[in-house]
Amino acid sequence: MTIYPIETGNFKLDGGAMFGVVPKSLWQKTNPADSNNLITMSMRCMLIEDRNKLILIDTGLGNKQSDKFFGHYHLFGDFTLDKSLAKCGFHRDDITDVFLTHLHFDHCGGSIQFNKDKTNYEPAFKNAKFWTNKNHWQWAIKPNAREKASFLEENINPIQNSGQLNYISLNNTNYIKNSELGFAIFLADGHTEKQMIPHIKYKGKTIVFMADLLPTVGHIPLPYVMGYDTRPLLTLNEKKFFLDKAANEEYLLFLEHDAYNELCTVKHTEKGVRLNETYKFNEIFN
């Protein structure tokens, strides 16, 4: 198995929304804001090459939205999904599986693209299976008013229409093992219904793709919960459970949205679980 970080671009979000009830005087220490109170966010995906499979976890924003849409989120930088895949020696047509942690636009937007005539939408990965779970899919296609702006029909409906949609089987626990993709999954409901957090065994380590359970290192303290979360008190409990386990078992946390840190570890302290070390991926895995 070989794992590659896949940078798909940077964007900006309101710092207050990203940290909920936490005052700016605290969160700006780790996530500095510009004059408009916007903080820089990455959209760092993960590519897993494992025997005959090439699995992409999340797909970034994509490029099919309007200029007005991108103007709201200030997409910037030289990174694109195609450039990052090419740097690793791959093309999007090589992807066999696209695993979507959840269906918010910054995690699944790159899954769908315009066709050549720009008259309709089509899967951006024509040879891939797209993986979600039934609970989250139903949540996304019938969105609540709070999340409606994050679940875009043009990102979701074409996946179903393509015939490439597949569901991860759930059970009655928060942890499931998926034999087809080869990694375990932690299910978290605080941010959105049944967000899937992959745990990948790699070179003697457990790498956890954090998605929106832990967007950046600045979100490690328990009260630092995004205003976007639908059930913030549940997020508190899920974070505590997960971070205690991550500290005990020395997980490497792969940060999708942290523009400054690719990986981190956490440790127990008198104040609770806190940041231990940060790393570039290639510092650990050459």
Secondary structure topology:
Elements (H helix, E strand, L loop, with lengths): L1 E13 H5 L4 H4 L10 E13 L2 E5 L9 H7 L7 H7 L9 E3 L5 H4 L3 E3 L6 E3 L5 E4 L1 H8 L11 H10 L2 E3 L7 E4 L4 E6 L6 E8 L2 E5 L22 H18 L2 E3 L8 E7 L2 E8 L1 H4 L2
Number of helices: 9
Radius of gyration: 18 Å
What portion of residues is helical? 10-25%
Strand order of the largest sheet: 9-10-11-12-13-14-15
- Unreliable stretches (pLDDT < 50, length at least 5) are none
Beta-strand proportion:
25-35%
Number of strands: 15
Mean pLDDT: 94
State the separation between the terminal residues, measured CA to CA.
13 Å
Can you tell me about this structure?
The structure is a single chain. Helix content is 23%, strand content 31%. With 286 residues, the chain is of the alpha/beta class. The strands form 3 sheets. Strands 9-10-11-12-13-14-15 form a 7-stranded mixed sheet. Strands 1-2-3-4-7-8 form a 6-stranded mixed sheet. β5 (112-114) and β6 form a beta hairpin. It starts with a strand and ends with a helix. 43% of the residues are buried. The mean pLDDT is 94.
Tags for this entry?
alpha/beta, 6-stranded mixed sheet, 286 residues
In short:
With 286 residues, the chain is of the alpha/beta class.
